[in-house]
Amino acid sequence: MGVDVITKYFPNLTAKQLEQFAQLEALYSEWNEKINVISRKDIGNLYEHHVLHSLGIAKALNFRAGTTVVDVGTGGGFPGIPLAILFPDVQFHLVDSIGKKIRVAEEIRKTLGLTNCTTEQSRMEDVKGKYHFVVSRAAMPMSDLVKLVRKNIGREAINSLPNGIFTLKGGDLQAELAPYRKDVTVYQLSDWFEEEFFETKQLVYLPL
């Protein structure tokens, strides 16, 4: 399944965005041969399992121009790079502690010409910046993530949802989210995307 799975759900892309999304397959295939950032078995499902999955965040919130977002544990650039393509007026900062992974994200960012995206090899504990939102793909349990990023959430809110965390997860989250049940919102990705892959996939939003 190629880039058409993206245009199916995001039909209003510009020619430039279409071109950037279309480049991802060759770029990730090439880099994955050198540095394994996506399971070799899964590289053929790049658009569905990685790009569209990342864009689930955009179905919950249409980030306003000028929003700042930090991607914690970005790996090879998910969800940050697909979101940076979709939101050219939003600033994304991609962070990972593993040098070779962040190198892939940086090289792909440069090739795509994503001027609204920066990368940093760092542990999140050491990142000092303030952001409207933190995004992540199942990097760690919610309680660990909250402890790690609370210091990075800025006060000034400019979006229709309060500043906070968006994290993509799967499986039974009841116990993990129990401490936050008054505040947390869980979106089922299957409400937005009909592919079987999304049946067990969720997006968790927690205002901080």
How is this structure best described in words?
The chain has 208 residues and is an alpha/beta fold. Helix 3 (46-60) crosses helix 4. The protein has helices at 4-9, 15-34, 46-60, 80-86, 99-112, 142-149, 174-177; strands at 68-72, 91-96, 117-121, 133-137, 164-170, 185-188, 201-207. Helix 4 links the parallel strand 1 and strand 2 (91-96). The chain has a seven-stranded mixed β-sheet, sandwiched between helices. It has seven helices and seven strands; from the N terminus they run αααβαβαββαβαββ. The mean pLDDT is 96.
Features:
single chain, 208 residues, alpha/beta, seven-stranded mixed β-sheet, 7 helices, 36% helix, globular
Counted beta strands: 7
Spatial extent as radius of gyration:
16 Å
| Broad shape | globular
- Give, in order, the helices and strands: HHHEHEHEEHEHEE
For the report, how would you describe the main beta sheet?
Answer: 7 strands, mixed
> Would you identify the regions where 5 or more consecutive residues have pLDDT less than 50?
none
The helicity comes to 25-40%
Whole-Å distance between the termini?
Answer: 37 Å
- Estimated structural class: alpha/beta
Strand order of the largest sheet: 3-2-1-4-5-7-6
